[in-house]
Write a structure and sequence with these properties.
By secondary structure, this protein is mainly α. Helices cover about 60% and strands about 10% of the residues. Helix 1 runs parallel beside helix 3 and helix 2 packs across helix 3.
Length: about 100
């Protein structure tokens, strides 16, 4: 798969080759949360940056994830009634039991 991108200078088209196969993007996506939170070793961060620099899909995804994280961090925590908290807890426990039984 190749992606065409316009460069800011002269409007020339530059072709960057991206090989999405081999599960590389999926492996990257699994680490993005830790990457955004600066929880990965420098060597892995370098690998992620190199991949992101050549993968427009992952670049777009991480930009969206960063924006979502920013929005969540700046929103007030919603108030939940005791009943809502109990219902949420039960739903989590049911889901965990279902996952465990698979």
């Amino acid at each position: 798969m190749s992606t065409k991108r316009r460069t800011p200078r002269g409007g020339k088209t530059v072709r960057r080759v991206h090989q999405a196969g081999r599960g590389r993007c999926l492996a990257i996506l699994r680490q993005l949360s830790a990457y955004i939170d600066d929880e990965l070793p420098a060597t892995i961060c370098g690998e992620l940056r190199r991949h992101l620099g050549g993968c427009p899909n992952c670049e777009e995804f991480i930009a969206s994830l960063r924006h979502t994280v920013t929005l969540c961090r700046h929103r007030p925590t919603p108030s939940l009634s005791a009943s809502d908290r109990a219902d949420l807890r039960q739903a989590i426990l049911r889901r965990a039991a279902h996952q465990k039984g698979r």
